[in-house]
Amino acid sequence: MQIIETGNTAAALGVKLARAQVIAAYPITPQTPLTEKLSEFIESGEMKAEYIPVESEHSALAICIAAASAGARSFTATSSNGLLYMHEQIQWAAGARLPLVMCVANRGVGAPWNIWNDHQDSISQRDTGWIQIYANDHQQIIDSVLKAFCLAEEVMIPVMVCYDGYILSHTHMPFDVPDSETADAFLPPYQPPYALDPADPANLNTVTMPECRPDVRGDIAPGYMEIRHLLQHDLIEAIPALMRVEERFRAVFGRGGNPYIEPYRCDDADYIAVSLGSLSYQLHGVVDALRAEGVRAGVLSVHLYRPFPDKIIVEALDGCSGVIVFEKALSYGYQGPLCSDIKSALYRHAQGRPFVTNYILGLGGREITTQDLYEALKASCSPDGGAGEETRWIGLKLHTRGMQT
Amino acid sequence: MKTTILDLPEEELVEPGNRACAGCALGIAYRVGLKALGRNTLLVVPPSCLTVLQGLFPIAATKLPSLNVTFASTAAAATGLLAALKATGRTDVNVAAWAGDGGTSDIGLQALSAACERGDNFLFICYDNEGYMNTGVQRSGTTPQWAITANTPLKGKMQPNKNVPAIMAAHGIDYVAATSAAYPLDLYDKIKKALTYGGVKYIHIHIPCPPGWGFEPRYAVKVGKLAVETGLYELYEIEKSQLRHTGASLKLMEKRRLLPVENYLRAQSRFKTISDAEMEKIQDQITRKWEGYFKSSEEAQGGE
């Protein structure tokens, strides 16, 4: 059924279709309408699940971790400082190999306080062992939530579905909501490989030594490092696993295709702009304008950020002379993390390397005008487009008080 | 009904030869506590001495399913287990959390308070060895005043301890109890009774700690008993807001004779710097407190 609703509602409908059994959440802008909608579904009886209104994000994820350990499909959602407050639990969930799904309505982090969109919150959780998927529109939000449960349960790794706060979370857009029978056909009930059970007692997440140790029968069990290696191995294996999920999704719903990246006019492009989330679609118009002027530009939207599909990205960038990375996040003291990741991928896999340059923009919801994007991309679409400062900022107003440098 | 040692279930749910320190009173409390909880239980354990007692992967000393969780999240994790049990139709399974005093009164208090307010149905046990013993004896919210710890190394802790059972009782939950590893049958009966109530139930267990408190391993029970017989630590329960003493503390009410607190304090090296004047002050506080109890008990009897 085609409806016009907000991105948060799209996420909530995805969670409902996924038949999540345990939901715990703490209010934070701009995530709140998502979890309000879920509590409404549950209170009205439209959805059967346990909804726990917790006192903190740390507890929200604690509940999901425990519920998944006892065999229930579990979901939470947050933004910004809420996500940062979960950080310990985020690492724990990945280490414990629990198939949780969490939506992140992306928002800038404090200090200073800011409630508007950028990607610093989820990008700062990059190295936690979670799978990270970025959605560009409402259809991708609802579809990604369904796929996320499917993927998480196949590889036993938690998945973060990220979408832009306000720009997507609070705007109304048309999207298709599958009926529940079709969704059930895609995502059957969760069959946990192990669930805490008095009939089959086990101690989970016990202290694990640096070295391998024998059990009571003398069989050698893995040490901490082997267990962590397995997480890394399985994250890399999650890349092909996501394609299997995508193919099943397409077979059931008739849409989808490339779960890793979304290239736009990249095939013959000399210069390719790269970004995460809704910004990618804003760049489509910019590329169209440049194409009209005879500049062969394209846009590469990255959907799967972790595990990083490096070979797939390098293949998509193959043959271009310049890569221009637009980012709403920063590894403070260096450059945009996506820029670093792409350079790293090119170093390893590309033959003739294009230049890579980096624009930081839209932090804390700073307006991103299409004119600014056009001027930045146009300036970079030349053989010496990578010259000068590698990381530049768009939309900065440095004439303000105390900012003259 | 009072359980005797003859009535305790014979089945052991904690393996012998675990990694607890010699003379650890948690070993007594955990062994008897799990007998009271029974096999049909899921445990939640945050980082603490119990994590060590439970053993190092891939060997476990606990025969019940047990979930190790992050330090601040014990009570929330218990709620998560309950939610999953409910969502998967297994509503006959008990959920019990075992946290230390730091994991309860300090870092774990927020999540525990929230679970009380929501009325989530699990038993929360705080085993109180009065400090961060697992990390090498640092002060916690329940470390008593004047105790030497690794981060109050010369003068001892300056502040009195938190009264955690009173904080828990202030949530209006149906069952709060204080007990001691030195009185395992009192502990057993309290866990059994707690399980008859819904919502969060809270049991505080006094756990003498030989290396942390500074006494020989063989004296753990003796030190625990001295804490009660001097009137410093009380065995009681608050059942639907009604407080009553139990076991050895109830006997103190009848006998009206407290041992001098000096007997307890001088049995442990952690109180070695306490002055006679401070000890007198503590004795005075205990004496006045118990005189108050005696008086209200007389009034209650007079009124009957």
UniProtKB/TrEMBL annotation, chain A:
Residues 269-373 form the Pyruvate:ferredoxin oxidoreductase core domain. CDD domains: TPP_PYR_PFOR_IOR-alpha_like. The keyword Plastid does not apply. GO terms for biological process: response to oxidative stress. Residues 14-224 form the Pyruvate flavodoxin/ferredoxin oxidoreductase pyrimidine binding domain. InterPro entries: PFOR_II (IPR033412), Pyruvate:ferred/Flavod_OxRd (IPR050722), Pyrv_Fd/Flavodoxin_OxRdtase_N (IPR002880), THDP-binding (IPR029061), Transketo_C/PFOR_II (IPR009014). SUPFAM superfamilies: Thiamin diphosphate-binding fold (THDP-binding), TK C-terminal domain-like. The keyword Cell inner membrane does not apply. Its EC number is 1.2.7.1. Signal peptide: none annotated. One of its GO terms (molecular function) is pyruvate synthase activity. Keywords: Oxidoreductase, Pyruvate. This is Pyruvate synthase subunit PorA. It comes from anaerobic digester metagenome. The lineage of its organism: unclassified sequences, metagenomes, ecological metagenomes.
